[in-house]
Amino acid sequence: MNIKKLKNIKLLLLDVDGVLTDGKIIYSDNGEETKSFNSKDGLGIRLLMDSKIKIGIITGRKSKALSYRCKNLGITLLFDGITNKLDAFNLILKKTNILPKETAFAGDDLPDLPVMKKAGLSICPADAPPYIKEHADIITNQKGGDGAIREVCEQILKAQDKWNIIMNKYLS
Question: pLDDT tens for residues 41-63?
């Protein structure tokens, strides 16, 4: 486990297709793109945000569904339609004044590799291809869109001694 790296995380950046979703792109009859998001990932993201850890999205695709999801969760660091994810990563670091070593990035495919290599902690879901897994510090037990990000959120919160505070809030 990468406890030391997890303890330093102030910003979690996420790819979308294959990480927050199962990677399927569904079009309605009128050509509108839809996505399916996992509510467990959503709660994990909210728990991180409530614990003062910033969340951002860097994705190559633009979609209304993603915009709605980010609005619903309160994610304002949304960089969609990005062809060079490393440029977006550097812009986010500058905007937030957070260092690369304080940043985790979850990705699942080739366009994510440059950011995975620069982030302090690189993450991929269980169903990422082997050539992505070999560059990941953490490979989740869950597949993309199936709770992989919730798993990461809990690992960060536990490493930073914030999990018990959250649990006590729900148990009392």
Answer: 999 999 999 999 999 999 999 99
